[in-house]
Amino acid sequence: MSFSMSLLLKRFSKPLMLIFIVLIPSGCASVVIGAGATLGTAAMEERTLKTITADTALATKIRYAIVEKDNELAVQVGVEVFENQAMLTGIVANEKARAKAIKLAWSAGTPKAIFNEIQIGDSSVVNFSKDSWSTASLTSKLTFDEAVLSINYSIETVNGTVYIMGIAQNQQELNRVIAHARTISYVQNIITHVRVKPPGSAPPKT
């Protein structure tokens, strides 16, 4: 579940938050990409069904661990998991809150890595509608770029910074993804946690 989506939970009670967290799959942005792609592209997902299931389970465990200990932190932090690597995004008030979120994420399972992309600042001044628009805009650009396997990317935007996780077929594809992000006027920064496949790797099976 993305940071933007988590803000919708602010009006929910804790029991409803727990239900919502369990039902929402990992990587809301990546789900949007898949939904907009053709069936042929959807079949090009690099991750196996087993890996996707494990990623979803880990993301759910992390969200559950956070909301169980800190209701407010749960609506401030977004969680994405890709290939057993977790990325935490969002905006919190101080370093103590950020460290707490990371500690809880580690306690939830055994991720290969945790990317701490939580910003410190005042979330009340963030333009969440523009963040959501930026994510949707980049999602659309990747979906309609035939040179990019968009199904293999997960995108989140927080406070004008675009975070991209996924698998690139090669450096050229990743360069195209970054170039698309740079065309979005609101985007101020781009951070990637993308694995580039080595030269000569076989394409995903259709």
Give the secondary structure arrangement, pairings included.
Elements: H1 3-6, H2 14-23, H3 28-36, H4 39-42, H5 49-69, H6 71-76, E1 77-82, E2 85-92, H7 95-107, E3 113-120, H8 128-143, E4 153-158, E5 161-168, H9 171-182, E6 189-196
Helix pairs in contact: 2-5, 3-8, 5-7
* Tally of contiguous helical segments: 9
**How many domains, as an integer?**
2
Structural class: alpha/beta
* Strands in their spatial order, largest beta sheet: 1-2-3
Intertermini distance:
27 Å
Query: What percent of residues adopt helix (DSSP H or I)?
Result: 40-55%
- Report the average pLDDT across residues: 84
In total, the number of strands is: 6
Radius of gyration: 16 Å
| Major sheet attributes | 3 strands, mixed
The gross shape turns out to be globular
Unreliable stretches = 8-12, 24-42
Order of helices and strands: HHHHHHEEHEHEEHE
What proportion strand? 15-25%
Can you tell me about this structure?
Helix 2 (14-23) runs antiparallel to helix 5 (49-69) and helix 5 packs across helix 7. The chain has nine helices and six strands; from the N terminus they run H-H-H-H-H-H-E-E-H-E-H-E-E-H-E. It starts with a helix and ends in a 10-residue tail after the last strand. The chain is 46% helix and 21% strand. The protein has helices at 3-6, 14-23, 28-36, 39-42, 49-69, 71-76, 95-107, 128-143, 171-182; strands at 77-82, 85-92, 113-120, 153-158, 161-168, 189-196. It has two domains: 3-124, no CATH class; 126-196, 2-Layer Sandwich (Histidine-containing Protein, Chain: A). By secondary structure, it is of the alpha/beta class. The relative contact order is 0.16.
